[in-house]
Amino acid sequence: MDPIKESLLKTSRKAKQEKFGKLVTFLCILLIMVMVVAIILFVSLKGMATFVVNHVSPFDFFFGVNWNPSAKPPQVGALPMFLGSFIVTILAALIATPFAIGAATFMTEIAPRTGKKILQPVMELLVGIPSVVYGFVGLAVFVPITRHLFGGSGFGIFTATLVLFLMVLPTITSMTTDALNSVPRNYRESSLALGATQFQTIYKVVWRAATPGIMTAVVFGMSRAFGEALAVQMVIGNAALMPTSLTSPAATLTSILTMGIGNSVSGTLENNAIWSLALLLLLMSLVFNSLVRWIGKRSSLK
Amino acid sequence: MALIKTTNLNLYYGKFEALHSISIEFEKHQISALIGPSGCGKSTYLRTLNRMNDLIPNVTITGKTIIGNTDIYAPNTDVTKLRKKVGMVFQQPNPFPFSIYENVVYGLKLAGLKDKEKLSEICEQSLKEAAVWDDVKDKLNDSALGLSGGQQQRVCIARVLAVKPEIILLDEPTSALDPISTNKIEDTLLKMKEHYTMIMVTHNMHQASRIADMTAFFLQGKLIEFDKTSKMFLNPQKKETQDYISGRFG
Ligand SMILES: Nc1ncnc2c1ncn2[C@@H]1O[C@H](COP(=O)(O)OP(=O)(O)O)[C@@H](O)[C@H]1O
Ligand SMILES: [Mg+2]
Question: ipTM of this model?
């Protein structure tokens, strides 16, 4: 065989390198996939044990109002924590959203230069502050203030809401800023050219065109609030009772989870019930994720 | 008397003098074309007439512009009122991401008009005037972004017409469109001439000759020549105009 033909028939070095590169990237993605599937499987199996092994009825789990897995007989009603999580999340989002929209509007529409140069980096810095710091601020500042204003211990949903509000505000503001910035300039120009004031342009055109983006920001903030454990645990009081007032101690899924997981023995109902809470949390974060994707998809169709 | 009268207008972007001592007058119910090579200041001049340059930081304007009897740069001018009187159509069709109906009535709602019947009536009338009614009458509640470029541009024209301006500024309104849509828009503009005074920037010399009564030639921030369109194209007085029209530069 002549050398040219031979070299054409053999796989070249470059082709080998290409194959190798593809293999490496494939392995990386495989690792991530395996991890995701493994986590979901593991949490599901552990979480289902409460129902399969310990024969707790799912109805009692979802709608039971008493949480006391170590009592005789054990009570594993997750409703108080589920409600607790929902209430703090929704309240925090409700308070944070108007502030976030206001701040983002200031940064993009009213003072875009200062916004870009100073405020945006500050917001991004705030997003990165570890949650324990927010929890600590809550503990040192909000708990005493709440105690002073409303009596009681100062721990509870109200204080947790304030801490979460602080935590998600930068996230929602930052994402809302991006949403407002991505509204095309010519929408603003044509609105002004039709005789609109800047304020009319903002609320009739800019906010409206950015609504899907703002909604994504809010849901994202909510999913962060829903999943936050540490900061909430520090200020909510961790009493797994049906929430009856905003200022009495309550609990969230995450706070009971972090409190309970170290204090129970693997394989017991106590431990399994906590895994069930984790499963519930995982399902909720899937819901939030799908919500974000759904909003994104619906707005890109237009 | 002329409807629009600019005298000795200079415009600076920072230190850069984009317009140099422009003096020009436009008559009522005529179409005037502004032609000239890219960057000569056509858009800049056009945007002085509805004060859109106010939005750009560091713009300084000297000289006088009178529309009707009012000096539009007088300190007490209500710019929003001016912009309702002097509408503008942009180069890129830029409807809002709302329904066609909401696009057209946008300006009316700004003015506080709430009567549904009245809004629908003006909407229909404006879309008819902009010659796009037949295209959209069955889908007024659909998003305007679903229309073709030409239809979008005519909806934008309807949106301007709805607020009943006296003057309409058009900045290369057909340069983003195909020839058929361009023809339709030109026909529309010719029909609108009865009721409106229009000033149009165009890159297209044929377009100027087809629809403009008057043509102004700009070069490097200066107004070189302004005359009847036929005269500008057949017998221009200035050498620069002649060169540009015969395609020697630009
Ligand atoms: N916002 C701006 N800032 C600074 N310079 C500008 C701005 N807009 C336009 N110019 C300059 O002013 C000149 C005229 O621009 P323009 O009016 O857009 O020209 P035309 O519309 O005739 O193509 C150009 O040299 C351009 O670079
Ligand atoms: Mg231009």
Answer: 0.93
